[in-house]
Design brief:
Layout (H helix, E strand, L loop, with lengths): L1 H21 L7 H4 L23 H5 L3 H8 L7 E3 L27 E3 L4 E10 L2 E6 L2 E4 L4 E4 L20 H4 L1 H4 L3 H4 L9 H5 L3 H5 L13 H4 L1 H4 L5 E2 L35 E2 L23 H5 L3 H5 L3 H4 L15 H4 L16 H5 L10 H5 L2 E3 L9 E2 L8 H6 L8 H5 L5 H11 L16
Antiparallel strand pairs: 1-2, 2-3, 3-4, 3-5, 5-6, 7-8, 9-10
């Protein structure tokens, strides 16, 4: 009897193994993907967190030392750095600072950025208030050169004087770069730290049983909002109101969702940068892909993965900031969910069948084809910002939407060919889809 029981158990395990081995890789995410969708207007911040104040990451570290250790090594902890505390934060060559610069290293208090560009915050009294402004030159780390910097030329150029010394960081930068500033107007901590994503933590630090907002526990569409608060280009929410124009916000236009705290309905605080398919803007090419950095959310909300419930944190560990442009996990990141012959594809049996390129070539890299570099950090920077609109852009589309050939995944590798010839290659491979034939009226055929 015992032998029969053991044999039956082994048989069940074998059957279970066979079933599990043939389930789609997306199966572990089933619960996430099937969560009940809730209103974008619903406030998800725990009631007991209401009224809490910001305490800074050192308080969080007392109980969450491992996560704090991971975070301190990430670039989120270094987005703004105090130069006196860490002089090594300065990456620019100040011996080559142009003579027309309106600041010196001695005047700079904070650095902003370091990976692609670095700007410098200088104390300034603006409109009667002690504040900071940015220097009129920034360091381009990608090409190792100083470049003129005129941030007032962004969308709020009609809301501020055209002078860096008159453009306060309190309205343009600090909401995303200083923890706590977005909702309190106080620079609690110069970093994107724990409370930037979890909200004010005073009650939680006093009583660990007190609930604090965790984005991963809610509707996946709402989960993304903690990232979208900053990784989505926007306009001042007040411009949504009737009869309000940018000129009406003179010296007061804000480049972040003023008043927002994680868990609040972001849609009540943020007005995304406008885009209409077929219309090129300062921020987007005519097909919706990014022309500038920090547009991940604007692109992603139009993607099918977003609509089906895949979140930013499925691909990026928010504490470690893994799988970044500098440290990509490559195809492994995509193949966590996608597998050959699965219900979500690729719908071929091998990588070479899917890409028509060798397995170990750039042409078989998921991100090279589905996340091509479509944007620059400055006009003189190389294309280095990867698209988060994951559908493949055909050469015909690139041509029809009047995008630079360099933004096309095929042309990025095959600069010796034309977009027309690359499109013909895809035709020969049978790699066209009906939906891709819907191009602008003056488009390529």
């Amino acid at each position: 009897m015992k032998k029969i029981f053991i044999g039956f158990t082994l048989l069940l395990l074998m059957v279970a193994g066979i079933i599990w081995g043939n389930l789609p890789k997306i199966t572990p995410y089933y619960t996430q993907l099937t969560k009940t969708r809730i209103s974008l207007n619903l406030d998800l911040q725990p009631k007991e967190q209401k009224g809490a104040h910001f305490v800074g990451s050192q308080e969080c570290k007392k109980c969450h030392e491992e996560k704090h250790h991971d975070w301190i090594l990430s670039l989120h902890s270094k987005i703004i750095q105090d130069i006196k505390v860490n002089p090594d934060a300065v990456v620019a060559d100040f011996t080559a600072l142009p003579s027309g610069a309106d600041f010196t290293l001695a005047q700079a208090v904070y650095t902003i950025g370091s990976k692609f560009t670095q700007s410098y915050m200088i104390p300034e009294t603006i409109n009667g208030k002690k504040d900071f402004r940015l220097g009129n030159y920034q360091w381009n780390e990608e090409i190792k050169k100083w470049q003129e910097f005129t941030p007032y030329q962004e969308w709020y150029q009609d809301a501020y004087p055209h002078d860096n010394k008159e453009l306060p960081t309190s309205n343009t930068c600090d909401g995303c770069h200083f923890t706590g500033y977005m909702s309190t107007g106080e620079r609690i901590e110069p970093a994107i730290s724990c409370e930037s994503c979890h909200g004010p933590g005073s009650q939680h630090t006093e009583n660990p049983d007190s609930v604090i907002f965790k984005a991963s526990l809610t509707d996946p569409i709402r989960t993304n909002e903690v990232c979208f608060q900053c990784h989505m280009r926007n306009r001042d929410k007040r411009l949504e109101a009737p009869y309000i124009h940018i000129e009406d916000l003179w010296r007061d236009a804000k480049d972040y969702p003023d008043g927002y705290e994680p868990g609040n309905p972001l849609i009540s605080y943020k007005l995304p940068a406008p885009f209409a398919l077929g219309e090129e803007t300062e921020e987007f090419w005519a097909n919706g892909t990014a022309k500038k950095y920090r547009t991940q959310g604007n692109e992603y909300i139009h993607d099918r993965m977003y609509q089906h419930g895949i979140t930013c944190i499925n691909c990026h560990d928010p504490h470690k900031l893994t799988n970044t442009a500098q440290n990509s996990q490559g195809n492994a990141a995509c193949l966590k969910c996608h597998s050959f012959g699965s219900v979500i594809g690729p719908h071929q049996n091998t990588l070479e069948e899917h890409t028509h390129h060798k397995d170990d070539s750039k042409g078989s890299s998921c991100i090279e084809c589905h996340m091509p570099k479509t944007a620059k950090h400055t006009a003189r920077s190389p294309f280095s910002v990867r698209s988060h609109l994951f559908s493949f852009t055909y050469p015909a589309q690139t041509k029809a939407y009047h995008m630079p050939p360099e933004t096309n995944a095929c042309y990025a590798c095959h600069k010796d060919k034309t977009l027309d010839s690359l499109q013909n290659n895809l035709k020969e491979w049978g790699k066209l889809e009906w939906e891709k034939l819907e191009l602008p009226p003056d488009g390529f055929r």
